[in-house]
């Protein structure tokens, strides 16, 4: 069981003991996935987000399960405001959800100006609370350019919540560039044998996110145990398979069970 390896601090279980939360990497367009967006709204209304400016904590004794939702209109914000995404995102904002605009860094190949332009559109049209930097580089050589981008994004939106989507453990220096890092994104068959980088033990669990597809219902509890042991604070698990990048577009078959295991009082 590789995920049980002992880190430099002598034990990861205590670090990962904080309640987990849900990070939604991006459902399909509201027109194509009305059920998914309705479930996001239900979850948002039931439990307020934590950690954001102006966000009230959830009711006493309940866990604030929804940490953030990624908005990806059309490979980013699209060319113009979307008539379906506008009301859907407005409802989520009013319910207290934290919206993150999707910016694809293309592993460092995307021009800086294009990314900033997309960020402006997300802010102007959808009033996002921050950004999800997908396909974020992991190498030390691209760290300075990534920091340039995150510094600019914070200047565009005071208090912006930034999540860097590396998909694996990056160079430790990236931990100072964002609020959260996605240190695993991939298949369950890889996740169940994954190992945590020792440098992550120096940070609280809330700094790391795990996104896993192809998780069977019978292994959901094991997946949650791995996440806690490895020190993740935000997770998204689904039994959907990644056919052309569509694993995140629809609800997991066990959505209610998944959410109820993370935050009480959500599923009916």
Automatic annotation (TrEMBL):
This is Spherulation-specific family 4. It holds the Pfam family Spherulin4.
């Amino acid at each position: 069981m590789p995920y049980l390896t002992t880190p430099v601090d002598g034990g990861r279980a205590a670090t990962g003991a904080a309640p987990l939360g849900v990070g939604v990497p991006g459902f399909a367009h509201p027109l194509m996935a009305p059920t998914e967006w309705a479930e996001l709204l239900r979850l948002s209304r039931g439990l307020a987000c934590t950690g954001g400016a102006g966000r009230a904590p959830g009711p006493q004794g309940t866990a604030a399960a929804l940490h953030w939702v990624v908005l990806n209109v059309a490979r980013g914000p699209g060319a113009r405001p979307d008539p379906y995404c506008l009301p859907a995102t407005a409802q989520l904002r009013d319910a207290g959800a934290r919206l993150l605009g999707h910016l694809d860094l293309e592993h460092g190949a995307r021009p800086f100006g294009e990314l900033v332009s997309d960020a402006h559109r997300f802010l102007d049209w959808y009033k996002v609370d921050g950004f999800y930097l997908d396909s974020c580089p992991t190498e030390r050589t691209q760290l300075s350019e990534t920091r340039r981008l995150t510094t600019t994004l914070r200047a565009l939106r005071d208090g912006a919540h930034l999540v860097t989507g590396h998909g694996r453990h990056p160079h430790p220096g990236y931990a100072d560039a964002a609020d959260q890092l996605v240190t695993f994104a991939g298949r369950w068959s890889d996740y169940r044998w994954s190992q945590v980088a020792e440098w992550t033990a120096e940070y609280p669990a809330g700094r790391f996110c795990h996104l896993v597809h192809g998780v069977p219902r019978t292994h959901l509890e094991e997946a949650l145990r791995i996440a806690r042991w490895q020190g993740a604070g935000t997770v998204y698990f689904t039994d959907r398979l990644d056919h052309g990048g569509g694993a995140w577009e629809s609800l997991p078959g066990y959505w209610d069970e998944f959410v109820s295991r993370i935050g009480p009082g959500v599923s009916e």
